[in-house]
Each structure stands twice: as C-alpha cells, then as structure tokens.
Amino acid sequence: MINKVYNGTIPLWHFENLSKFPEIFQFVTSRKGGLSSGRYASFNLGYTAGEKKEVVQKNRQILADTIGIARENIITVRQSHSNEIRMVGPEDKASGPEASPADAMITDIPGKCLTIVVADCVPILLYDPVRKVIAAVHAGWRGTVKKITAEAVRVMKEKLGCASGNIIAAIGPSIGPCCYEIGQDVIEMVARELGSRESLLIEGDKVALARFDLWEANRRQLIEAGVKYENIENPQICTSDNTEHFYSYRKEKDGTGRFMAGIMLR
Q1: Does the pLDDT value for residue 97 go beyond 80?
Q2: Which terminus of the chain faces fewer neighbouring Cβ atoms within 10 Å, N or C?
Q3: pLDDT level of residue 107 (50, 70, 90 thresholds)
Q4: How many of the other CB atoms lie within 10 Å of CB of 173?
Q5: pLDDT (tens digit, 9 = 90+) per residue, 134-178?
C-alpha cells in the first residue's frame, strides 16, 4: 500500500493495484488527522464506537473535504455481519447510525463514495474497469463464513454484467492470523461453512483455541468466485500489530475508534 498525506495533516493509504485506474479514487484512512480525543484520537469515523455523533460528523466532513466531495456522498450502511448487499443509486445519500443494514455496497454511479467502517474486520474493495462498477465489502468472521465477499462478486455479475476475470480486488488492513484467536464454536463454523480448515485455522496459544486467517478466507472466496490471483492485493497489514496507524477493537478493547476504507468512481 501507498501512504500519502493530504492537506498537510490527513494520511490516506491507497492500494497499489487500484491506483492504476485514474477513473476511481480509493483510500483507507488512519487514526490520525481528525478532531477526536482520548481513546478515540483522533480520526474516528464510526458512530458505533460510542463517541459523540457531532464529532464523527465533523471528522467525516474533514474526509469529504480532503477527497473533494460533499459529505452526503460518503455512503455508509449499518454493518450487521450479514451477507446482505445494497445497490447504491443516484438518489442515495449519506446516512447516520440509522442507516439500513447491509455489509456490502455496489454501484456504477460516479460520485458515490462507498465506505466500510472497521477496527479489525476486513474491508475489501472491488473494481471492474470494463463495466465501471465498484464495491465495498465488510467481512468480519460472521460475514466471512457467510461468504459475503463471494456474494458481492455474484451480485456485481448478476446485476451489472461484470465478469469475474475483470475484477480487481484489494484486502485492507485488518486483524491478521498472528493475532486473531477464536474459540471452538467459531472453529466448527469455519470448518462447516467454508468447507475446509486447511490454511484457514492455525493452532492457537491456548487449548481449544485457533487463529483464524480472515485474509486467506476472503482471498479464497475471491478466487473461487473467478477473480484472478494476480488481480488481488493483500498487503497483510494487521491492525492489532499497527495501532499507531489503525484502530483495533481486539487490541484496544471496546471504546476504540473506527477507520474507513472507501472507493468512488470519479
């Protein structure tokens, strides 16, 4: 990933594979550059973290100003750890914490910035440069076992005529297999729903625990959905190991902030 600083204070990270396409703008925010204080310092963009709504709105306005769009065009959903997909049309505008529930968004409308808010879960950005279609996916462990990433590719193909082989995919900063321990109930669900434990579950440090590789699970879904291996970027940046740049719910416990990944057709 490439890290650039905008307006002297706002660091935005960019995926190298998606940066080859000037007709889109894509980014991952860090925890720096905003107005939040204390445990949320300083660029918290998530309403669900517990911070005052007006501070989050001001931070989102800073992001909109940095990107050069109206704040109403930063589109969010109420992430519910599902495999629900929302199609974003020209009439859609930004929503607050009352946004409709979904865990992925897809559009072919320019000027709509599709965003995912996370603090360990996997943000995934997708782009079909042939059909000019973008998607943003939120994949926590529940969404991963429900195959939200594969579902997003399926809907891109079914609704907007995309071809899997044309899709460019980027897997954002999130908790890595180095730090993400799960219990027996999740272990059994991973094996049952994803069909295999091989290379997805690593023996944990404690009895009855394993470490879950969310990156590999979602990369595998992309490959199985027909996305080419060489079209997938995974910088393998673990949020728990990089709390100087990103929020981590697991590392910092409840009450930490949220960073954002987004993609927009210009």
Answers
A1: no
A2: C
A3: very high
A4: 26
A5: 999 999 999 999 999 999 999 999 999 999 999 999 999 999 999
Distant-in-sequence, close-in-space partners of 46: CB < 8 Å, separation ≥ 6: 56, 117, 119, 257, 258, 260
Tally of CA atoms within 13 A in the half-sphere of 38 that contains its CB: 7
Residue that has been written with the tokens 């529930």 in this structure: 101
For CA atoms 222, 115, 121, 177, the dihedral sign is positive
Output the average pLDDT for the chain: 94
What are 162's two structure tokens? 């995309």
pLDDT at 207 over 70: no
* 64, 65, 66, 70 alpha-carbon torsion, rounded to 10°: 40
- Neighbour-count burial for 107-143, b at 16+ CB within 10 Å, e otherwise: bbbeebbbbbbbbbbbbbbbbbeebbbbbbbbbbbbb
CA 246 to CA 28: how far, in whole Å? Answer: 10
Rounded to an integer, what distance in angstroms lies between the CA atom of residue 134 and that of residue 218?
Answer: 17
Tokens 């007709």 map to which residue? 23
pLDDT tens by residue, 4-49: 999 999 999 999 999 999 999 999 999 999 999 999 999 999 997 7
- Which residue in this structure is represented by tokens 């589109």? 75
10 Å CB burial of residue 56 (0-12, 13-18, 19+) is buried
3-state secondary structure of 35: coil
Could you tell me if 164 and 133 are in contact, meaning their C-beta atoms sit under 8 angstroms apart?
no
Nearest 5°: phi and psi at 66? -65, -40
